[in-house]
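User: I'm putting together a teaching handout on how sequence relates to shape, and I'd like one worked example. Could you take LLM class flavin-dependent oxidoreductase from Occultella glacieicola, show the sequence you're using, and then write out its predicted structure as tokens right after it?

Assistant: Happy to. First the sequence, then the structure tokens directly below it.
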Amino acid sequence: MPDYGHDLTFGTFITPTNAAPATVVDLAKATEAAGLDLATFQDHPYQAGFLDTWTLLSYVAAQTERVSLSANVINLPLRPPAMLARAAASLDLLSGGRFELGLGAGAFWDAIGAMGGPRRTPGESITALSEGIDIIRGLWDTSTRERLVVDGEFYRVDGAKRGPAPAHDIQIWLGAYKPRMLRLIGRKADGWLPSLGYVKDLNDLTTSNATIDEAALAAGRTPGDVRRLLNIGGTFSAQRGDALLSGPPEQWAEQLADLTLEYGFSTYILSGDDARSMMILGQEVAPAVRELVRAERGADRTDPTSAVGR
């Protein structure tokens, strides 16, 4: 797959454990101190061992100054879209434009049902997610005073007042793997956010990208309208290895640059809850990846035999 040309960003995927809440916040601060761009937290409201993600995002926003924040990803079935839209815009305003909205269609339906949420089939959850996106974007759109009406199968608003508008154009990123969800990303989302650990073969990324691109074009958009983000994990060591993301920082940089240039990813989000790894990613890996990608993009622009130059 081609490089979509997005700027490169790097972040962290922090476990919101409630056994040591100060440690969770410290890891978000470590993300910022490492020079990284984004701190994210999983959202499983039925998990009694976790802090509530929305409360955590708000608290971390007040404890940081520069880093952007997102859930990875928000559990839509337990967070109604109209309220989510107002909460997201409010947090973006309060944080000075540092919030992005990762969204998920929902899983673990027994746990969702135990919390009083709905139980949906895969097809129903995707339809509900599409309706939710329409409501969220509609409430953010204050360019019109016309009240919002969305008469969906799962979500409805009937004359809701619009606003507040967020401080910046909040990106909506969807976690997805299956074709119908990928097509929804192409039609309506700003980003695709899978986890590398769930990818069986890198060729699957090529297939998924093609599905997103085709849906984007069919909807009158361009493939570049969709940022590709990737949750990653691995280990730093002194010796090079054969495995992906297992070795010294320079090996990580080479492999992430390949994922950008060959598969179109431009945001890498590191799991593991390790402040040292965060620092290595921010201070060693990220600058090296940017330099490798910058050099290759420059070569493509100047080489008359390159795909870009033709």
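A couple of points you could highlight for students: Confidence is low (pLDDT under 50) at residues 303-310. The two ends are 17 Å apart (CA to CA).
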